[in-house]
Design a protein that fits this description.
By secondary structure, the chain is α+β, with helices and mostly antiparallel strands. About 35% of the residues lie in helices and about 30% in strands. The chain is built from 6 helices and 19 strands. Strands 2-3-6-9-10-13-14-15-17 form a 9-stranded antiparallel β-sheet. The chain has a 7-stranded mixed β-sheet with strand order 1-4-5-7-8-11-12, with no helix packed on it. It has a 3-stranded mixed β-sheet with strand order 16-19-18.
Length: about 325
């Protein structure tokens, strides 16, 4: 079909066609052309014997609802049977096409791709999604429902229409972002996941770690490490003493020491040394609100080690 029809157009066409078949009213040229297209599509994989058997099977089912009496003449009975065959043909056609049209029009999700450049997608609830190159957005036919859910591969910026009663959820690769109305960006690069919040509030959930609640100008990330979560300030946070660390919260749940140390080193501009035999020891810790020194002291306590500082290096040893 050259033009995709909406549900209401298809419904109207089917009932108009059925009515004209039964009353023997003429079918318009446009309707007849569309019917032929449907018929060719439905019958391409069916042989004549199969079609005849299907028509007879549907006809036998319809006869129950149209009982004939003795006063019906042979001619009228023949005409009536002809009508039933027409009805049966229409039903078979619709049933044959059901797998194609029902799935395509009513079930198959809409998929939007950001190919070589960015693509702007306007959703039915008024939300706007900017797909960055390589991104893929999947939207179910039920959208928007009581809960507005979409799926994202790659990176995209969301400007979500506000609704106090209908949450908007973006399911990405291994984590999800829930909002009521806001502007945010989701980035996915391999195992590394990030959510940048520009307006409103969002809740980011990922397996194995607590839900993180973001405020404007904050970023959620897992640093590319499973069971890890952090909230980072996108703007410098000033305190009465001096500029506070960019990391506002940092949590690990059963994460190897070597990966915990790598995160601390890269984000606090420091070095952490520890016994080689302890590098795979699993760490569960919440470093929210601490300075780099306090966080490393907590880490050493979990490991049963002492901390010695030499210039910009923290040495953990027995």
């Amino acid at each position: 079909m050259k033009k995709r029809l909406t549900y209401k157009n298809i419904e109207a066409f089917v009932f108009r066609l059925w009515e004209r078949e039964v009353t023997e009213d003429s079918i318009s040229e446009k309707e007849n052309e569309l019917l032929k297209q449907w018929k060719n599509l439905a019958e391409k994989d069916l042989d004549i014997a199969h079609l005849k058997e299907s028509k007879e099977r549907v006809l036998s089912g319809l006869e129950y609802y149209f009982p004939q009496t003795d006063i019906i003449s042979i001619r009228s009975a023949k005409s009536f049977t002809t009508h039933l065959y027409k009805i049966a043909a229409v039903i078979i056609l619709l049933l044959s096409l059901g797998g194609v049209f029902t799935y395509t029009i009513f079930i198959k999700p809409d998929v939007y791709l950001g190919e070589s450049g960015s693509r702007i997608v306007h959703l039915e609830d008024g939300s706007v999604v900017t797909l960055l190159p390589g991104a893929e957005l999947t939207v179910e036919k039920s959208f928007p429902a009581s809960t507005r859910v979409v799926e994202l591969k790659g990176d995209a910026i969301f400007s979500v229409a506000k609704s106090k009663t209908h949450p908007f959820i973006v399911r990405a690769d291994g984590f999800s972002t829930k909002v009521l109305g806001t502007v945010f960006k989701i980035s996915q690069s391999g195992k590394k996941k990030e959510v940048d919040l520009y307006e409103g509030k969002v809740a980011v959930s990922s397996p194995g770690v607590p839900v993180s609640f973001l405020k404007p100008n904050q970023k959620w990330t897992n640093f590319g490490i499973a069971h890890t979560t952090a909230i980072i300030s996108l703007k410098p946070v000033k305190s009465p003493v001096n500029k506070a660390p960019a990391i506002l919260s940092l949590s690990f749940n059963d994460v190897p020491l070597k990966e915990v140390a790598a995160v601390l080193e890269s984000n606090y501009d420091t070095k952490v040394q520890y016994p080689k035999e302890a590098e795979d020891k699993k760490i569960t810790a919440d470093f929210t609100g601490g300075t780099v020194g306090e966080n490393i002291e907590s880490l050493a306590f979990i490991l049963g080690l002492e901390v010695h500082k030499k210039e910009n290096t923290y040495i953990l040893k027995k």
